[in-house]
Specification:
With 79 residues, this protein is mainly beta. Helix content is 0%, strand content 20%. The strands form 2 sheets. The protein has a 3-stranded antiparallel sheet with strand order 1-2-3, with no helix packed on it. A two-stranded antiparallel sheet has the order 4-5.
Length: 79
């Protein structure tokens, strides 16, 4: 049985994929914005593109998430 006497941990959310390990983005400490997957972790690039014509999309637009970084399997990188 695990008993926690002191709560000193701050919960954050992260976004990851099967092709990446462990995460590609993480929310900021203390954030209450649960509609975002957070900012990319160091050495990681992310963008959202239109699947039909491969053009970059802006904030709030739906599309495919593309990620490049050291944690992404090399055969999955298509930026």
């Amino acid at each position: 049985m695990l008993v926690c006497l002191y709560l000193t941990t701050c919960l954050v959310s992260g976004y990851g994929l099967t092709e990446s390990s462990p995460v590609v983005s993480i929310s900021e400490k203390g954030t209450s914005k649960y509609t975002s997957s957070g900012k990319p972790v160091p050495n990681t690039e992310m963008k959202v593109v239109n699947r039909e014509n491969n053009t970059n999309l802006g904030p709030g637009e739906s599309g495919e998430i593309c990620v490049r970084g050291p944690q992404v399997r090399h055969w999955q990188v298509k930026l």
